[in-house]
């Protein structure tokens, strides 16, 4: 079987500054594809990249909010970063996740609960290095954000 060339292409494209300007289009396409596939697929899935849908209550409203995210695999855990496409502000989902102890995850058609842990302090650098190695575009997004420290979260599946 021929390997999927799309993940390599996506990693290359993610390092191009002009790609950040396509964020609104990609977000709209993500919603459309998720809706059309009944939530089973999104833009990242089509590009052959690891994605997870995270649902967490809004920190102010308590209304569940779902966001599709690229994740960095770390063993059985999911590492997600609040890069917000290199924006100088944190994404809203990261504030909601920061306020939560658990979240609901949809991954490859399976639903389960995860614990949420924000990675800070001395523990942060190895996670950042892992993330940049996996998705080099994070380094460019960091520069584009003006040096904002992206929130990093580890999502760990709760055993039944």
Low-confidence stretches: none
Strand order of the largest sheet: 2-1-5-6-7-4-3
Report on the biggest sheet.
7 strands, antiparallel
Number of strands: 7
End-to-end gap: 36 Å
The global form is globular
Percent helix range = 25-40%
Task: Tell me the Rg in angstroms.
Answer: 15 Å
Mean pLDDT: 85
What's the order of the H and E elements?
HHHEEEEHEEHHE
- How many helices? The count is 6
Content of β-strand: 25-35%
InterPro entries: F420H2_quin_Rdtase, Split_barrel_FMN-bd
Protein name: Nitroreductase
Family: Belongs to the F420H(2)-dependent quinone reductase family.
Catalytic activity: oxidized coenzyme F420-(gamma-L-Glu)(n) + a quinol + H(+) = reduced coenzyme F420-(gamma-L-Glu)(n) + a quinone
Protein model, in words:
This protein is an alpha+beta fold and 160 residues long. Helices cover 32% and strands 27% of the residues. It contains six helices and seven strands; from the N terminus they run H-H-H-E-E-E-E-H-E-E-H-H-E. A seven-stranded antiparallel sheet has the order 2-1-5-6-7-4-3, sandwiched between helices. The longest helix is centred in the first third of the chain and has 14 residues, at 23-36. The chain starts with 5 loop residues before the first helix and ends with a strand. The mean pLDDT is 85. InterPro entries: F420H2_quin_Rdtase, Split_barrel_FMN-bd. Belongs to the F420H(2)-dependent quinone reductase family.
């Amino acid at each position: 079987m021929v390997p999927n060339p799309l993940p390599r292409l996506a990693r290359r494209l993610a390092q191009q500054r002009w790609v950040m300007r396509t964020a609104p289009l990609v977000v709209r396409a993500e919603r459309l594809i998720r809706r059309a596939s009944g939530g089973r697929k999104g833009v990242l899935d089509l590009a052959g990249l690891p994605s997870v849908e995270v649902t967490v209550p809004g920190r102010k409203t308590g209304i569940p909010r779902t966001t599709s995210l690229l994740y960095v695999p770390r063993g059985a855990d999911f590492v997600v970063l609040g890069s917000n496409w290199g924006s100088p502000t944190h994404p809203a989902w990261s504030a909601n996740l920061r306020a939560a102890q658990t979240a609901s995850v949809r991954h490859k058609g399976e639903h389960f609960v995860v614990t949420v842990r924000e990675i800070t302090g001395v523990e942060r650098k190895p996670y950042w290095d892992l993330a940049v190695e996996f998705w080099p575009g994070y380094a460019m997004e960091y520069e584009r954000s003006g040096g904002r420290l992206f929130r990093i979260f580890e999502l760990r599946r709760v055993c039944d």
